[in-house]
Each structure stands twice: as C-alpha cells, then as structure tokens.
Amino acid sequence: MNARKTLLDRSPAHAGLVPWLAVAALLAAAGAAHAAPATTVAMTNTIATSTKSMGTPPRGAAPNLGSEPASNPDAATAGLMADRVVVRKSAHTLYLYHGNEIIGAYHVEFGLDPRGPKEREDDFRTPEGHYFLEGRNPHSAYFLSIEVSYPNRRDEARAERHHWEPGGDIMIHGTPNDPRYPGTYYQSQNWTNGCIALSDSNMVDVWMKTRNGIPIDIYP
C-alpha cells in the first residue's frame, strides 16, 4: 500500500539505536492488539527521535536462491544486524539474514492478488525480484514503513513493453494507524495494495535490525 502519506525519510537511517527498554515498554502499553492512537504516536515519536544517521553500504550481489533452513533464530543471534532480507511469498515469511544465518523470521501478508509478480500500477500484486531497502518513514499512514526499491530496471522494461505504468510506493509496513477491521483481519489474509505487511511488534523488530541499502529478494 502507499505508506507515504508524509514525506519519506530517505536519509540512511538506522533504527538499531532505539533503546530496547523504551520500545518494550511502549509495546507492553499497546497490548497484543493494535496500539491505541496515542500509544502509536508515542512509540513512533520515540523511534523517530532515537534514529541516527549511518552510512549506506554499497549495493551487493543477489543472494543465492536456495531454500531457507528450518532452524529458528535463538539468543545467539539477538544482537546481530541483518545484511539482507529474503521474502518467500508462498510461505508468507520474511527472513532477516546476517551472513548465512537467519536472525529473524516473521509472518507477512501481501497484496490482494498475490499470484505472480507486480507488473503495473494498481494490479494489487507484490513484486518478485531483487531490490534494496532505500528509505524509512516513522510517520506513515501505517505503523512504520520501509521502502523497497521497486521498480528495478527489469520491471521498468517489462512495463514499457506493454505500455503500462509500473507503479511504485512498495513498502514493508505494519498495520494501519486507522484500522477499518479487527486486528485478526490484518494477520490472516492478504490485504495490501502490493506491500509487505507485518504485525506492529514484528515491524519494530525488522525496523531495528535493518538499515537502508541492504538487499531484499522477494521470491514466489
């Protein structure tokens, strides 16, 4: 979905410096359901205030196409930062990697039409391909958002061949700040316009463990 209702922060921000205790306290206050508006504002303001600028790493090569192992992240990986993101649409899972080690695995939902890659504007599909995280917004219409660099050159060439607009504004984000449905709706089915959606607590974790410029590969 278009999470850029306010100006997107394109600085190479890194939320890993947000104090864990402050975030944990805010999450506890929010409860298991979606945070109340005042709590959401307080949490996003805390994250925005604590975010520091860091250098954006060079764009690296695409990771291997192999399947992820079944092992789960544990305490040994708790302090590590991700250097790449892998999304498996068929498994509804987003993985954070540090080297070859999975340091996070999260349930995600996709566009209303999850079959196949995004090809054009308003097709309600989530892209498939090799991209990068290139901006983040703590004040979007959804609970935090990280921009994905769709469209890439391949996407643009395909759209041009068909005389389509490729679309854009593809984000990783949490649930709406103004939800229209119960919280369970957003965790049980595909509901976005093409973005990758997580629960709010998982979105905090992904925000804190990633930085701008790292690759994200989205597979069927």
Structure characterization notes:
With 220 residues, the chain is of the alpha+beta class. The protein has one domain: L,D-transpeptidase catalytic domain-like (Beta Barrel), CATH 2.40.440. It contains five helices and ten strands, in the order E-H-H-E-E-E-E-E-E-H-E-H-E-H-E. An eight-stranded mixed beta sheet has the order 5-4-3-10-6-7-8-9, with helices on one face. It has a two-stranded antiparallel sheet with strand order 1-2. Helix 4 links the parallel strand 8 and strand 9. The longest helix is centred in the first third of the chain and has 14 residues. The protein is globular and about 50 Å long. The protein starts with 12 loop residues before the first strand and ends with a strand.
In short:
This protein is of the alpha+beta class and 220 residues long. Helix content is 23%, strand content 20%.
Q: Can you name the CATH architecture? A: Beta Barrel
Q: Quickly count the domains.
A: 1
| Rg for CA atoms | 16 Å
CATH fold-type name: L,D-transpeptidase catalytic domain-like
Number of helices: 5
Largest sheet: 8 strands, mixed
| Helical proportion, percent range | 10-25%
Strand content: 15-25%
Features:
L,D-transpeptidase catalytic domain-like, 220 residues, 5 helices, alpha+beta
Layout of strands and helices, then pairs:
Layout lengths: L12 E2 L5 H11 L6 H14 L1 E2 L30 E5 L4 E6 L2 E7 L21 E9 L7 E4 L4 H9 L9 E3 L9 H6 L7 E2 L2 H10 L5 E5 L1
Parallel strand pairs: 3-10, 8-9
Antiparallel strand pairs: 1-2, 3-4, 4-5, 6-7, 6-10, 7-8
Helix pairs in contact: 1-2
